[in-house]
Amino acid sequence: MSPQAMLNGKSSQVTEQAVEVIHQRIQQGTYAIGSTLPSQRDLALQLGISRASLREALTRLAALGLLEIKAGKGVYVISQHSKAAEQWEGEHRISLKDFYQLRYVLEGFCALLACEYLTEQDKSILKQHYEALANAISEQNWQAASEFDYAFHQHIIELSHNQSIIQTLKMHTEWMKKSQILPFVQPNLAFKTIQEHDVILQALFKQDAVAAEKAMQAHIIGAAQRAGVYFSRHEQ
């Protein structure tokens, strides 16, 4: 699929997809470290988007630590990986992308299984976690938000009743918690976390197993992207 075909859609989707295309070009070496990107006029034309959408995409990539924007001089590539990914990989044996992919597979399946066991009490608990998460985000208390996020996910994992998955993820509790605070590196996108959790919650409340699995997987992809990690298109 060409970049222009990919970038058809709503404004926020256009920006997100522009971020992904530029990020991929940086990782592939099309835009090498130390080089400058094409002018904003030329790059906007290449991608088939407005300069306003492009500026937003560049600002997000700069916040992630991949680009440096120098007024009057251009936009420089300074890293192939987000600051969050580089920090993670300096502390752990596996990449941040690997861990988000693990969560994508296991937590998606947990959401599917949870629909079979969900009780009214569980619905109440999940709603409380969701509301606490939303309140923490509205107050920009990122540490509290990540803790309520963890509690929300952990309850769904426990609801799967799959002890193999539960124990596997429990062995990586600290990794789980850290992977849930990293997406808040872009505070202006935190509202997406609320939206994604609402979709998960509604699917669970309807006990729609397929929708719950898809909603959880979409959320993991979104969280990874906000931390500067992108899955390949066939994984989405």
Structure description:
This protein is mainly alpha-helical. The chain has 2 domains: 78 residues, Arc Repressor Mutant, subunit A (Orthogonal Bundle); 152 residues, GntR ligand-binding domain-like (Four Helix Bundle (Hemerythrin (Met), subunit A), Up-down Bundle), CATH 1.20.120.530. The chain is built from 12 helices and 2 strands. The N terminus is likely disordered. Strands 1-2 form a two-stranded antiparallel ribbon.
Compile the SSE list and pairings:
Blueprint: H1 3-6, H2 11-28, H3 40-47, H4 51-64, E1 67-70, E2 74-77, H5 83-91, H6 96-117, H7 120-138, H8 142-159, H9 163-170, H10 173-181, H11 190-205, H12 209-226
Antiparallel strand pairs: 1-2
Helix pairs in contact: 2-4, 3-4, 6-8, 6-12, 7-8, 7-11, 8-10, 11-12
Based on the model shown, name its key terms.
236 residues; mainly alpha; Four Helix Bundle (Hemerythrin (Met), subunit A); two-stranded antiparallel sheet; 12 helices; elongated; disordered N terminus
Number of helices: 12
CATH fold name of the largest domain: Four Helix Bundle (Hemerythrin (Met), subunit A)
Distance between the termini: 15 Å
Helix content: 55-70%
Shape descriptor reads elongated
What strand line-up does the widest sheet have? 1-2
